[in-house]
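Long-time lurker. I teach an intro course on protein structure, and each term I like to show students one example going from raw sequence to a predicted 3D structure in token notation. This year I'd like something fresh instead of my usual example. Would anyone be willing to generate the tokens for the chain below so I can use it in lecture? Attribution to the forum is fine with me.
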Amino acid sequence: MDSLITAAARALATGDPLGALNRVALRDDAPALALRGIAMAQLGEFVRAKALVRRAARAFGTKEAVARARCVVAEAEIAFVSRDLGWPAKALDAARTTLEAHGDRVNAAHARLLEVRRLLLLGRLDEAEQRLAELDPAPLPPASRAAFELVVAGIAMRRLQTQTARAALARAGRAARDAGIPALAAEVDSASRVLDMPAARLIARGEERLLLLEEVEALRLSGALVVDACRHAVFDAAIQVSLARRPVLFALARALGEAWPADVPRHTLILQAFRTQFADETHRVRLRVEIGRLRAVLRTLAEVTATKRGFALAPLGAGAVVVLARPVEERHAAVLAFLADGESWSSSALALALGASQRSVQRALEALAAAGKVQAFGRGRARRWLTPPMPGFTTTLLLPAPLPSD
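-- Reply from a regular --
Happy to contribute to a lecture. Here you go:
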């Protein structure tokens, strides 16, 4: 490895992509192509970065297996950052195996972290935890340890384990400072601020207030019966019933939860659950059927009792009923929640993450764009969506070691 390649690799390792490009911008040998690709990715030019990394992989040839595997890892990270979630995971797994076989444990660990971060983004927490448990962060360099702790914190936040998340973020902050990469430290700070921002809205007895993530965690242990509009479930301290695939039943449960301890008129339930502007006898018949189904699924948590004018929710063991909702509720809120990470998403990646059809996601994006809440760039398959840019946002790739072969 010549001196310019070494200097460019060190510049990238410290988060200086422009310094790296100054040294290798005019070179077309395989190591220079790889470093140029990583630098372009750190600058946000993902299409150009992917092309350069692929050229580098071809230029290295079949005899340089480690260098080619590192290129695959780099391309996988570019795909992840640009939210190309359909990128073949088998290629990344094969590259990780190659790196482990040749003793490159640092980049092999980075490949594992990319795999876990993708699973986390898709909401597959059990798989993410299982894969992360196979990785020991102790021997890793500071940048990789910071990335590891960010993943630990991400899983903990989704599990509503705030103390675990805070401890992981503290370790990530120390590792980021040791790494000396400003963009990495900014990413840790951004993740830490999430814990101090409203995570949900509590609705109880006609009143509303915002909750932090720690308060949401405490609510789960409070003994109240919670109708969770964030995860579309109903739970108390011991039992949880998911209604994510039964929107009518959840709409009924939420209406009853918001009105507790009062009842809800039949006409109001029909309008809210069936999304109609009028009610006739067929709707009343359907309401009785759906109330029967709701009684069946909530039988271990609460009773749904009939009153003179409608129905009421009566918890079995809980002392109160509350509704947990998103801090801000609007149409297509789930799409906006993914776009809020500041990255650019394709409609196919959003559909994969949301578990919805691509056409449904496209219609939601078009509606949000018409309202000025999202914007698009590119055409056809290269089209990407994002929220209007926030000042000071930075994106970083966390390759823990220089890409070219030693």
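Some talking points for your students: DSSP finds 18 helices and eleven strands in the chain. The chain has three domains: 3-194, 200-325, 333-386.
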